[in-house]
Amino acid sequence: MRCVQLYRWQIPMDAGVVLRERRLKTRDGLVVRLTEGEREGWGEISPLPGFSLETLEMAQHAAIDWLQAWRQGSALPLPALPSVAFGLSCALAELADELPQAADYRAAPLCTGDPDDLVLRLADMPGEKVAKVKVGLYEAVRDGMVVNLLLEAIPDLHLRLDANRAWTPLKAQQFARYVNPDYRSRIAFLEEPCKTRDDSRAFARETGIAIAWDESLRDADFAFVAEPGVKAVVIKPTLTGSLEKVKAQVAAAHQLGLTAVISSSIESSLGLTQLARIAAWLTPDTIPGLDTLNLMQAQLLRCWPGSELPCLDSTMLEPLL
Ligand SMILES: O=C(O)CCC(=O)c1ccccc1C(=O)O
Ligand SMILES: [Mg+2]
């Protein structure tokens, strides 16, 4: 016998989380539970405002249609909406015991503001030290100074930087000029420095700073190709689609010698712990980009090891079916 449940949830965000110039006050999403006999599988469906093309309402409708058919025993293809395909495919994978339990709970600490704060957090990070710094929010010169400061303070640190396409070629050059040339090789990559892919490619060529694609993966004309200066691709499964599609993208990246970084779309702790398992499974040699739990004020259903945030259980969720 098959049973399904879909829950809607809302978690307040930490004050001041700004995404694409809008403040995200709450994170809203769905979780799905599939049961068949003794087995169950969970998945999270949380389109990210400003990033996902689908709204939560669209996702909810598509999920309900699919779940009702699945409960009747039909084998419908997964919906096309990426967040829905991702959440349902995770639930199916758990049900079939295809998503390994082992997880990579290392997360590259994310710095959006105070670099001193990051230095403290890195001091007690065991093993490979990798952190991620958002750049392009302030003056390019300030970004360059922050990068120098961090790389100077922590000699075994490698940085991932993310400009989210903020820079003109001139701003990007200003940034690069400020970074001590001896430190450039410790910039693991800089995600999407410029507004266009061609400008970003030129930046990599002219500065010797490796770049990574993130937003570009969602461009209609994006293709996985090896290019000089391109080091990595950032894969956000909630924005990508089914686990099958995520696996195919990771394989395409690895085939070309690119680093594939499994990364957060600000899922709840349920989705983030699944992403940590996906990362341990598909990208075991790469620290995933999952340090977003602390942007939220609570966890959901499954806890992230070591997190002190309260964890909501299923009695706190609103069942929709
Ligand atoms: O990649 C990470 O380490 C954290 C996730 C992150 O930066 C992010 C999270 C949600 C939306 C966009 C982004 C981004 O990469 O810009
Ligand atoms: Mg990015």
Automatic annotation (TrEMBL):
This is o-succinylbenzoate synthase. Residues 115-210 form the Mandelate racemase/muconate lactonizing enzyme C-terminal domain. It catalyses: (1R,6R)-6-hydroxy-2-succinyl-cyclohexa-2,4-diene-1-carboxylate = 2-succinylbenzoate + H2O. CDD domains: OSBS. The keyword Magnesium applies. It holds the Pfam family MR_MLE_C. Pathway: Quinol/quinone metabolism; menaquinone biosynthesis; Quinol/quinone metabolism; 1,4-dihydroxy-2-naphthoate biosynthesis; 1,4-dihydroxy-2-naphthoate from chorismate: step 4/7. GO terms for biological process: menaquinone biosynthetic process. Belongs to the mandelate racemase/muconate lactonizing enzyme family. MenC type 1 subfamily. GO terms for molecular function: magnesium ion binding; O-succinylbenzoate synthase activity. It is an enzyme of class 4 (lyase). Its cofactor is a divalent metal cation. InterPro entries: Enolase-like_C_sf, Enolase-like_N, Enolase_C-like, Mandelate_racemase_C, OSB_synthase_MenC1, OSBS_N. Keywords: Lyase, Magnesium, Menaquinone biosynthesis, Metal-binding. The keyword DNA-binding does not apply. It comes from Trabulsiella guamensis ATCC 49490. It comes from the Bacteria. Coiled coil: none annotated. Its EC number is 4.2.1.113. SMART domains: MR_MLE (SM00922). Converts 2-succinyl-6-hydroxy-2,4-cyclohexadiene-1-carboxylate (SHCHC) to 2-succinylbenzoate (OSB). The active site is at K134 (proton donor), K236 (proton acceptor). NCBIfam families: menC_gam_Gplu, PRK05105.1. Mg(2+) binds at D162, E191, D214.
